[in-house]
Write a structure and sequence with these properties.
The complex is a heterodimer of chains A (about 120) and B (about 180). Chain A has about 120 residues and is mainly α. Chain A is built from four helices and no strands. The chains are: A mainly alpha (about 120), B alpha+beta (about 180).
């Protein structure tokens, strides 16, 4: 037991850094970062992609064109609907106004005192 | 196969209810302005779907067209009188003389030379309405296939820019003193 304690004490004893330690740290800090070589740069592109990114790319390549097609279809549907609505309102307006005019004329002529 | 045949026959039956307006197509070449509205089946339902329920007029139209099968409008404006003749309308008049159709109103204005005739198809489903308006410089034919409420349609006609008419209701005659 006492041996273990001695070993620990020895291992964890305080050691003073060497006198040039601070100088060496400061020198390392002022050094420019290491520039990767062109080989290292190109090697990044050649690395196989991670599976999840490949899956995301595949899903997006399907979803984006499908979404675009669906959006175009929706736009066409809305345009057709608005055109049909305008035509329907026009037809009802024309039919309604002619019917209304005819009804008015019939009422005018049927009023007492109207010369036929 | 049977379903297809039945579907085809039903389609033909519905189509048969509409007036054949093909004879009017040739007038488009002579007219200065032409309007051709053909709303049948899915297109009519699509148009109705886009009508706003928040707008009171559009809500009324939506209710009115709920039971309609088709709507056709043809208008032809001519620069000069005589752009069309009665012979151009012969085919339509023949169809309107067929059983089921009855002429309910005919209004002639000698002042404006306007002639409006309203025909109603009753007796057989789905029913319908036809309006033929002739003027020396204008021709208008409307054909609505399906059940239509004429009062509501006329009411809408009054709402779209034309003042609504107040139908005079007959008031009971005041009792005279001598009657007592």
């Amino acid at each position: 037991m006492s041996n273990l304690e001695d070993d620990l004490r020895l291992a964890l004893r305080r050691e003073e850094p060497s006198l040039d330690f601070a100088e060496r740290v400061l020198a390392r800090l002022s050094e420019p970062p290491a520039v990767p070589t062109w080989r290292q740069r190109w090697a990044v592109l050649m690395r196989p992609p991670r599976l999840q990114w490949a899956a995301v790319a595949v899903v997006l390549s399907v979803l984006i064109p499908a979404g675009t097609v669906q959006y175009q279809k929706e736009l066409r549907y809305r345009a057709e609907g608005e055109r049909a609505k305008a035509q329907l309102l026009f037809a009802v307006r024309v039919a309604g106004s002619r019917l209304h005019q005819a009804q008015r004329k019939v009422l005018e002529t049927s009023r007492p005192g109207t010369r036929l | 196969m049977r379903f297809l045949a039945l579907f085809f026959l039903l389609g033909m039956a519905c189509y048969g209810q509409a007036l054949d307006l093909k004879d009017l197509d040739k007038l488009a070449a002579k007219a200065t302005e032409t309007t051709d509205v053909t709303l049948d089946g899915s297109l009519l339902r699509l148009g109705a779907k886009f009508l706003s329920a928040d707008d009171p007029d559009q809500a009324k139209v939506k209710k009115l067209v709920a039971e309609l099968k088709a709507v056709y409008v043809r208008t032809y404006d001519f620069e000069q009188e005589g752009g069309y003749s009665e012979a151009d309308l012969a085919s339509i008049r023949t169809q309107l003389r067929s059983p089921g159709w009855s002429r309910i109103v005919g209004v002639q204005s000698k002042k404006d030379h306007d002639n409006t005739e309203i025909f109603l198809k009753t007796g057989s489903e789905p029913g319908g309405l036809a309006i033929v308006c002739t003027n020396p410089k204008q021709l208008l034919v409307v054909n609505i296939v399906g059940k239509i409420d004429l009062d509501e349609l006329s009411d809408l006609g009054g709402n779209f820019g034309i003042p609504k008419i107040d139908i005079e209701k007959k008031k009971p005659a005041p009792k005279k003193d001598s009657d007592k």
